[in-house]
Amino acid sequence: xxxxxxxxxxxxxxxxxxxxxxxxxxxxxxxxxxxxxxxxxxxxxxxxxxxxxxxxxxxxxxxxxxxxxxxxxxxxxxxxxxxxxxxxxxxxxxxxxxxxxxxxxxxxxxxxxxxxxxxxxxxxxxxxxxxxxxxxxxxxxxxxxxxxxxxxxxxxxxxxxxxxxxxxxxxxxxxxxxxxxxxxxxxxxxxxxxxxxxxxxxxxxxxxxxxxxxxxxxxxxxxxxxxxxxxxxxxxxxxxxxxxxxxxxxxxxxxxxxxxxxxxxxxxxxxxxxxxxxxxxxxxxxxxxxx
Amino acid sequence: xxxxxxxxxxxxxxxxxxxxxxxxxxxxxxxxxxxxxxxxxxxxxxxxxxxxxxxxxxxxxxxxxxxxxxxxxxxxxxxxxxxxxxxxxxxxxxxxxxxxxxxxxxxxxxxxxxxxxxxxxxxxxxxxxxxxxxxxxxxxxxxxxxxxxxxxxxxxxxxxxxxxxxxxxxxxxxxxxxxxxxxxxxxxxxxxxxxxxxxxxxxxxxxxxxxxxxxxxxxxxxxxxxxxxxxxxxxxxxxxxxxxxxxxxxxxxxxxxxxxxxxxxxxxxxxxxxxxxxxxxxxxxxxxxxxxxxxxxxxxxxxxxxxxxxxxxxxxxxxxxxxxxxxxxxxxxxxxxxxxxxxxxxxxxxxxxxxxxxxxxxxxxxxxxxxxxxxxxxxxxxxxxxxxxxxxxxxxxxxxxxxxxxxx
Lengths: 291, 408
Ligand SMILES: Nc1ncnc2c1ncn2[C@@H]1O[C@H](COP(=O)(O)OP(=O)(O)OP(=O)(O)O)[C@@H](O)[C@H]1O
Ligand SMILES: [Mg+2]
Hints:
- The complex is a heterodimer.
- In chain A, 43% of the residues lie in helices and 20% in strands.
- Chain A is α/β, with parallel strands linked by helices.
- Chain A folds into 2 domains: 4-240, Rossmann fold; 249-290.
- In chain A, the strands form 2 sheets. In chain A, strands 6-7-8-3-9-10 form a 6-stranded mixed sheet, sandwiched between helices.
- In chain A, α5 (146-158) runs parallel beside α6 and α9 packs across α10 (264-290).
- In chain B, α2 crosses α11.
- Chain B has helices at 2-15, 17-52, 81-84, 91-98, 135-138, 163-170, 216-222, 243-256, 268-311, 313-321, 326-362, 371-397, 401-406, and strands at residues 59-64, 68-70, 76-78, 103-118, 121-131, 143-146, 158-161, 179-182, 185-193, 211-215, 229-236, 263-267.
- Chain B is an alpha+beta fold.
- At the A-B interface, α2 and α3 of A face α1, α10, α11 and α13 of B.
- Bound molecules: adenosine-5'-triphosphate and magnesium ion.
């Protein structure tokens, strides 16, 4: 049996006229040890899917079986324990606790398991060694670079030896060098047998994955198996299509793009690149110039 | 888990020192004022106790005014006015009481405030007590040097002074035989009392340590008969059973007062319970007012905790994502609220200790801080912390993880 099993899982937000179908009868199974990349335009339901897989949210319909256990209807305390023991989150904005130093941040999940301070310090310290941040143990998050902060966050996600690592756009706030460092770390973790779910807008990053899911309008519209090291075909199309997009196209808006490109998931992809990621990249560039 | 929470709480309070301190202020003020007021009340009671013990326990005291209202249920309440209005006791009462067979000694005590002078030194606001030679029999304090004036010497200008007066005017000298000027006349000091544990306060304003005793007849003469007899002390024949004496005294006085019961006949312990009753009432009343600031302080803590919970929504979301259960979040914020209130309580106790020493050093007040009061203060601040942190902590614990992660 697969590690993750979703059977026609749906998620509705709001009610009445304002209802959004964020997930539309998604059926999915993920094997232990897989490195899965999830792509899709903004609003296609990637984060919603991750939240449900990570037990931060409950599906409106459909069962979620994690490692043979029905988890979607568990009480919130039970869900918290499943999160603590089986799931490691890596967020786009690192989400380190600003008032704790790096070591304390990494040790926090152990504290929630009731481990003694001495033991958890030791383990956290070892984990920081693994992500190459040993000498930054006593730094506070605000004194870390983006890449270092994300590595600390990864160390924290790994500390409880989770079954799944869920990373929602972990490189979204990083420049290309830091992105590469972080992705190499994920690759390393994957080689050691961990299951990784990675949401990304960057087609390049599909090189690290062995399976790519394409989402659109709350549905999984593409499921591609790919060799590690190669960019996924679907992603590659997006990649090259995006190159053709001119400023005029951007002005023309979403609908124009959707007509231009083959496969709606890819078209919508460009849309999201236009909409969000580009904005943030340019913002990052200006910041770099200032430095 | 708890130790971690405590550390985290202290950390979080340290990062916003001023805010924490201001939040604790209500508790600090509340605790320190309640402790101070209760300690003052306790001190006052001790002083009054010592005061009343200046007289022997086998005496009956007649006081002006009806101090105690006895109701039908057998209980009694206090008539405060009786303590402050002009005396209804007169010379005639003293004379009448002296006739009683069961009275071994009848001692009038009249009080005048005056200055005492000797040579160059002068003391103001000295209690001048006009009394009879039998005073020495009802007084618990011994005469340390010399002797009390006697029946024979009643017409002579003799005086007996308290040890504080002796010390303040004559220093280390033994003043027996020296002269002292009170009420515009010179008296020869016959004796000096030993120190008693009396203090500054008493419902009769009698501190024998700082008093000058002169014969009653002189006091009367020197004040043109406008002497206020504050109390008449009657010593019974049988110290083990004072009740017959009390009955007789009452009857006699009723007749001299033409049937009006505008006086009180009290045993020593009754006086004691009246005095501590007064102090308890006043202390309780003021403490109650001070305790309101504890309540306000508790509400302040709740307020700041609620602010803190919404400010740290994202932190709560992150902690939940990492696997914190609702209970773990709850206890984190409970501990934080308790740290605030216990911190406030401890600072309040330190503040009251400072006030305590300040009062002891710079004033004549003698507050007494007792362990139960301190323990109560700690208990109250802990419970305030728990009570007023529950709502914010519940709010934090019930936050939805994804909404919290998004920061709303
Ligand atoms: N709490 C919510 N209430 C209402 N609608 C929501 C809520 N969360 C998400 N949605 C809606 O669900 C849909 C899917 O959102 P989701 O965040 O999963 O998209 P996404 O694929 O992660 O997008 P992005 O690439 O921008 O992160 C969107 O239409 C969004 O507006
Ligand atoms: Mg998203």
